[in-house]
Amino acid sequence: MSVTQEEFYVDVIVIGGGPAGMTAALYASRANLRTVMIEKGIPGGEVNNTADVENYPGYSKISGPELAAKIYEGAMSFGAEHITANVISLEIHNEEKYVQTEGATYIAPVVIMATGSHHRQLGVAGEEKLSGQGVSYCAVCDGFFFRNRHLVVVGGGDSAVEEGVYLTQFADKVTIIHRRDELRAQQILQDRAFNNEKINFIWDSIVEEIEGDFSVKGVQLQNLKTAERSFLPCEGVFIYIGLIPNSELVRNLGVTDEEGWIVTNERMETTIPGLYAVGDVRQTHLRQIATAVGDGSHAGHMAYQYIQTLADK
Ligand code: NAP
Question: Which family is it part of (predicted)?
């Protein structure tokens, strides 16, 4: 690769500044490794879009942004450098890894991928056109604009049910539309939703189209069991139908599964020496803040051990 930008040699490059990336930066810098954490937005990642976190040890309840700020403060306290930039490419040449942003190239023996995931889209007519005009993927960001309205939430996992409950503080009524007749969400979240009189469910159904010219007017539904179609008027549609890994940077490196999640062992190592993955971008069966920080601590520690082995060569 031709490197024409300013170059910085460090020990560890963490790409992504959510809880996993911040914790990896904490462990690496505390082990005295020169560490940069490159994050394009505000550190905290998806946690910043979470109203209340109730399942992070040490806090019975804390707002997502507040928790993110606390993790950030600790993570940066041992000398890790936080860089605000968008990573364009990652190239690996033997032991050296080149991480290019729009302004610079960072070179290190260790790269920790902590790039997280983003919300899957439905891919139906009206979704893109009305995005930001009633179609949303973030209840915490947009719920406030829907006071006394009827909202639809699509999905049956933790996000759909948790955010559906969250939206009832603004909306008059929240209808959760799920493609099966059984939720995937944790039981405690299900119980909250079933006990909330503002929430009702439409089962076995999918959204075929979101209607409206300049704002959402309703959704066209199809019942998958009866094939019956119906129109449900509403003013907002919140879509929570799962996650897509932000793994484009490593898609050509042979370290992802068929869906794009990065495959690691329990030490967060990929099959490429010195390349680790942590948090939501990793192939795992549980995506929580607590598991993300666990991943980050593993990778930060393994980075130290890996660099020791290079020094011993
Ligand atoms: P998820 O667990 O993958 O659930 C996605 C839901 O959307 C499923 O109910 C799925 O239906 C449905 N779905 C998928 N594709 C669809 C489509 N094309 N049309 C209609 N419905 C579709 O995703 P998530 O709820 O965003 O959660 C992601 C991860 O974050 C999970 O690991 C979750 O546990 C975690 N999380 C945890 C918390 C918490 O602990 N408080 C909160 C939020 C998220 P099926 O059920 O039929 O597959």
Answer: Belongs to the class-II pyridine nucleotide-disulfide oxidoreductase family.
* Residue 262: both structure tokens together: 């990065």
CA of 102 to the centre of ligand 1 (A): 34
Angle between helices 64-75 and 19-30 (to 10 degrees): 20
Alpha carbon distance 19, 119 (integer Å): 18
Q: Summarize pLDDT for 105-133 with one digit per residue, the tens.
A: 999 999 999 999 999 999 999 999 999 99
Q: Give the atom of ligand 1 at the shortest distance from the alpha carbon of 53.
A: 41
CB within 8 Å of 137: residues ≥ 6 apart: 119, 121, 238, 239, 240
Catalytic residues: 138, 141-142
Which pTM was predicted?
0.89
Q: What residue ranges define each of the domains in the chain, with the CATH number in brackets?
A: 6-118+243-312 (3.50.50.60), 135-239 (3.50.50.60)
Rounded to whole angstroms, the Cα distance separating 295 from 21 reads: 9
Tens-place pLDDT, residues 183-217: 999 999 999 999 999 999 999 999 999 999 999 99
Q: How far apart are CA 257 and CA 66, in angstroms?
A: 34
Residue in 159, 201, 209, 291 to alter for ligand 1 test, most ligand atoms within 8 A of Cβ: 159
Q: What is the Å distance from ligand 1's center to 7 Cα?
A: 41
**304 phi, psi to nearest 5 deg:** -60, -50
